[in-house]
Specification:
single chain, about 700 residues, alpha/beta, 6-stranded parallel sheet, 22 strands
């Protein structure tokens, strides 16, 4: 596709009236894009002063030229000098000379000889010598005679027709204004009773405006008429209540949900007609045989004797789905949602901890994490072990733990939980070590398992390709939203930390494993972190590439240098970035996993340092975080809004005009109500900007980064 010509628009204000500015710009667009837009003349007095506001409103560069002696052509010389400078710069393909003065004839001929496109715009009085020296010439007073100020009815019709023809939900207000002024000239909206053009747009009942965007209002669909029906009988209501509990599959449920189900089925009901004597739904339930109410929960009477068994079954079922166990808060959230708020009272218990420990087959581990005992797990159905399934599980575990390596004790426990404790024997291996030695794409060093570099690159590429194939088609802004949260939160630290000694590694096999999720995008942007030196990186790579037989015992000093670092001090912004990073990298990650990650980094007392009693209370004050039961994720609205902000910042950095940090901050708050970079865990606005791919910022300016 051919590229549009780049033009230099030079206007002689001494010979052209500013009332023609809209037509001049419209006529220039027919031939290309105006790279230079300048107006010359004595702009402080006489007719030149009338160009002040048209120049500002249409991004024209005013070039003031004082008249040193009356009658001399100072403006003509200024235009000629600038035109030759632009010609020799080689940055344009043509010139648009707006003047009615024949003194520019020689300039037009010289530009045409240089291979430039020359377009002239002037009034009918322009001498033929100048018009014939241009490739094209347009007469202002003839073309504009047919346009001009129209009545309000005509302008309204033109506005509505243009919006209807270009209704895409993001039609810019400035574009509508430019179309109207190019057609009708400078419109005085004050005479119509509107102080601003935006007020004129707001007066349309057919249009809606959101900041600077205009769109047609969607017509409300008429609601279908509700057919009158006979009120249900008491027997029909009782049967509907039974169907509700059968569909929900629970013994106890919320009274408001039940009332909503009945209203949806039968329409609005007057419960006073069913013997309760009151319109309240609670009184109706109290008089309904076969069901009992406790506060705001309802349950069948026959379920009362099985409450304890239902509690045990639901707790064991939930823990069987939690690979790393769950704390009492996660259990309480799940059980109250399934069995009702008063499930402990109905089951005959006073507190949750004692109730859980009364269930055989459940054990309490470190950090008050409840898990199923080994005996209980042995009764669960395990997968039939095959060599391919086992190999895939080992490779996936090693990939998820790269580059630090995965603990082989944790790997063995995970394989036992999936395939049963005799999976090595069933596959024909003597022990766990011989099974690992049979896999050629991994290497074992001390108590850790690693992928080979080639296999790791292959699996990451396959995972990235699989993610792209499964990605649903979305608008461009929503697609960007998927990655922008990861970009705008603190990225996973890629510096490889050295391992503790063998005793510490052996002890770690008994701890609850935490899933480590690699970044499939392959790019990690780190804020406020010192990059790893090339010497250290090379040393670590050489150390990792050693074969197990070549590894020798490190001296005592080296072991001491590999001691784990002390926990970092918990600071609310750093913790907020870590939480956003975890939620973006682990879809539906559990609260227990998040707690383990934060505890390892900031110590077990980090919640107390931040002034919170639980991790749920910490998350409740964070925008963008959605907690569902015991899982955490990024809300869709927050992700979409973040994607729009990222796109806006990139457009600002690459657009014309000011690129100052202060101007960007003002525009972000104008376009995104309630915007705050603190929502993303940043203390400084420049740190927030530098977390966005494609741009960089210093203290005063923002600029694009070309990849």
């Amino acid at each position: 596709m051919s590229q549009e010509k780049r033009l230099a628009l030079l206007i002689d204000s001494d010979n052209v009236s500013p009332k023609y500015i809209s037509f001049i710009l419209q006529e220039t667009q027919k031939y290309g894009t105006a790279t230079y837009k300048r107006v010359y003349g004595d702009l402080e007095s006489g007719s030149g002063s009338a160009w002040h506001y048209p120049a500002i409103n249409n991004s024209l560069l005013p070039v003031h030229q004082s008249s040193y002696i009356a009658g001399k052509n100072a403006t003509d010389f200024s235009i000629t000098i600038d035109a030759m400078d632009i010609l020799y710069s080689g940055t344009v393909d043509g010139f648009v000379l707006v003047t009615s003065d024949s003194d520019f004839t020689r300039l037009a001929i010289r530009l045409r000889e240089a291979g430039m496109l020359v377009v002239g715009i002037g009034e009918v009085k322009t001498p033929r010598a100048f018009t014939s020296s241009c490739h094209y010439f347009s007469y202002l007073d003839q073309v504009c005679a047919n346009e001009g100020m129209a009545d309000e009815k005509t302008i309204r019709k033109a506005t509505l027709d243009f919006v209807t023809a270009n209704n895409d939900g993001h039609l810019d207000l400035a574009k509508i204004f430019a179309v109207l002024t190019s057609r009708f000239g400078n419109i005085n909206f004050d005479e119509m009773g509107y102080k601003r053009f935006s007020g004129f747009i707001d007066s349309f009942s057919e249009l809606r405006r959101s900041n600077t965007f205009v769109a047609l209002k969607q017509k409300k669909q008429p609601k279908p008429a509700v057919k009158s029906a006979k009120p249900p009988t008491m027997q029909e209501l009782s049967a509907a209540v039974g169907e509700f509990f059968e569909k929900q599959g629970v013994q106890t449920d919320n009274m408001m949900k039940l009332e909503g189900y009945l209203t949806q089925t039968f329409g609005k009901l007057d419960f006073s007609k069913y013997g309760s004597g009151s319109k309240r739904f609670a009184k109706f339930i109290d008089n309904l045989s076969g069901y009992t109410r406790s506060g705001t929960t309802v349950s069948p009477v026959s379920a009362g004797t099985d409450n304890a068994e239902a509690f045990r079954t639901e707790a064991v079922t939930f823990l069987s789905t939690c690979r790393f166990g769950a704390n009492s808060e996660a259990l309480n959230t799940h059980l109250s949602g399934k069995l009702g708020r008063d499930y402990l009272k109905n089951a005959g218990f006073e507190d949750l901890d004692s109730a859980i420990m009364s269930i055989s087959g459940i054990e309490r581990g470190e950090n008050n994490i409840f898990t199923l005992s080994t005996a209980e797990k042995s009764h669960e159905n395990v997968e039939t072990v095959t060599l391919s399934a086992m190999t895939e599980a080992v490779l996936r575990y090693a990939r998820d733990c790269m580059p630090d390596g995965g603990n082989i004790g944790q790997l063995n426990n995970a394989l036992i939980g999936r395939f049963g404790k005799n999976y090595c024997t069933e596959l024909g291996f003597q022990d766990f070590k011989s099974m690992l030695d049979s896999i050629t794409d991994i290497r074992v060093r001390k108590n850790y398992v690693y992928l080979t570099d080639a296999k790791y690159a292959e699996m990451v590429d396959a995972m990235r390709a699989d993610t792209d194939e499964k990605q649903p088609e979305k608008p461009q802004q929503t697609a960007a939203a998927e990655k922008t949260v990861v970009k705008q939160s603190v990225k996973i630290e890629t510096e490889t930390e050295q391992k503790p000694d063998e005793q510490a590694a052996d002890k770690q096999t008994e701890e609850t494993p935490v899933k480590r999720t690699p970044n499939p995008r392959g790019r990690r942007k780190r804020l406020n972190r010192e990059p790893a030196s090339s010497e250290k990186t090379a040393e670590l790579k050489a150390d990792t590439d050693k074969k197990p037989d070549d590894v020798k015992e490190a001296p005592a000093q080296a072991k001491e240098s590999r001691a784990p670092e002390a926990a970092q001090k918990a600071e609310i912004n750093a913790v907020r970035r870590d939480i956003l990073e975890f939620a973006a990298a682990n879809k539906n990650g559990s609260l227990a996993q998040l707690g383990n990650v934060l505890s390892q980094k900031y110590g077990k007392g980090y919640l107390k340092e931040l002034g919170h009693s639980s991790i749920k209370k910490l998350l409740s004050g964070m925008p963008g975080i959605a907690v569902k039961g015991s899982n955490i994720g990024i809300s869709e609205d927050f992700a979409a809004r973040t994607a729009e902000i990222e796109s806006f910042v990139n457009e600002f950095a690459r657009g014309e005009g000011s690129h100052s940090i202060r101007a960007l901050g003002i525009r972000l708050r104008e376009h995104f109500e309630g915007f705050s970079y603190a929502d993303y865990g940043f203390e400084k606005f420049t740190d927030f900007i530098n977390a966005i791919d494609g741009v960089k910022a210093d203290r005063y300016h923002i600029s694009p980064v070309e990849e």
